[in-house]
Amino acid sequence: MCNPALAQKKYDTGATDTEIKIGNIMPYSGPASAYAVIGQTEDAYFNKINAEGGINGRKVKFISYDDAYSPPKTVEQARKLVESDGVLLIFGSLGTSTNGAIRKYMNDKKVPQLFVASGASKWNDPRQYPWTMGWQPSYASEARIYAKYIMTEKPDAKIGVLYQNDDFGKDYLNGLKDGLGAKASMIVLEEGYDTTEPAVDEHVVKLKAAGADVFISVTTPKFAAQAIKKAAEINWHPIHIISNVSASVGGVIEPAGFEIAQGILSASYIKDGSDPQWNADEGMKRFYNFIAKYAPKANKLDAGVVFGYAAAQTMVKVLQMCGDDLTRDNIMKQAASLKDFEPDTLLPGIKINTAPDNFAPIEQLQMMRFRGKKWELFGDVISSEIGH
Asked: 204: burial class by Cβ within 10 Å (0-12, 13-18, 19+)?
């Protein structure tokens, strides 16, 4: 006679009684290698979960490959993970163009492409791409929050935008124009750069020459640091806003130089691991203990570490919700039914909510200003939804 308890267990490729195989693709090399720390932190988090007995008794096997931030390479690695390694899902892969290159493949194969580490708005398209879901606030959401801020604080602004000439940069630009609405003419110059360029110095010079007094830098870490340095070098002191993806103290501000980064603005949804204000925070105490035990070499100043921890914690939550039904269908179903989930490292008041028709887990941010050696949050947590 078969055991009824066994009969209730449902598995797809990549899940067994003892193991859950999770795939991941990261730029461990190449122009975006500053983000490699995200994958390393996620790996350490799964090690912690395994050391504590796993998820419903199953150990996580985390298989993470390098794509050097190159879309053709991403395609190759995704195929390897799905077809050779037999992973249950791909989690937290980084980059807009890179994830864009595998989205159709993942959806055709009906393999979850979960919690994509990119803020492109297109990950929230459950109707057309039911197997793909983002995690962080979308770039357009963030840009709309900056638009609200500028219209309140400097209604006569002349805005200069430096943007990465790809989906990431364009999404942001669209969100900014969307947020400015009838005031979009405040943008005096849009300067696109390619990630293959060694430096963005010339673009920064052009933006100053155009008379911009608000500088929005829609850049990845290496170029964000260059832009901060160049603006200081040419004695240009606009209101300087940098995108959240480059707000890392350890990865961007420190290399650029604390003294020249004073007053820079950004927005965040995660706690800053370098900020003593969180020392007594219960969630951050768990985070610091995790660092000490499982990732002692990690730089807690690096926002990527805080990000990787919260994303991995969200992934674990979904798998816990799946119970013994570890089918790809059920994984997407649970991922689309998160209610007020609060990972340890998200800012107070920011919660993760998803629904079958809402694949955007985080839609709130708070403005912050760089002072001394850290970011200072100010104002309220702002929802980016239009009309809020």
From this structure: buried
Quick one: which H or E segment has residue 388?
A: none
Whole-prediction pTM value?
0.85
Alpha-carbon distance 17 to 103, whole Å? 29
pLDDT digits (tens, 9 = 90+) for 353-382: 999 999 999 989 999 999 999 999 999 888
DSSP annotation string for 223-275: HHHHHHHHHHHTT---EEEE-GGG--IIIIIHHH-GGG-TT-EEEESB--TT-
- The distance of Cα 308 from the centroid of its chain, to the nearest Å, equals 9
CA 238 – CA 230 distance, rounded (Å): 12
Tokens of 202: 């010339």
- Quick one: which H or E segment has residue 329? helix 328-335
DSSP bridge partners of 159? 187, 214
H or E element at residue 18: none
The DSSP H or E segment spanning 350 is none
For residue 159, give the 3-state DSSP assignment.
Answer: strand
Instruction: Output the CA torsion 98→101→105→110 (10° steps).
Output: 50
Which structural domains are found in the chain, ordered by start? Answer: 4-137+279-357 (3.40.50.2300), 139-268+366-383 (3.40.50.2300)
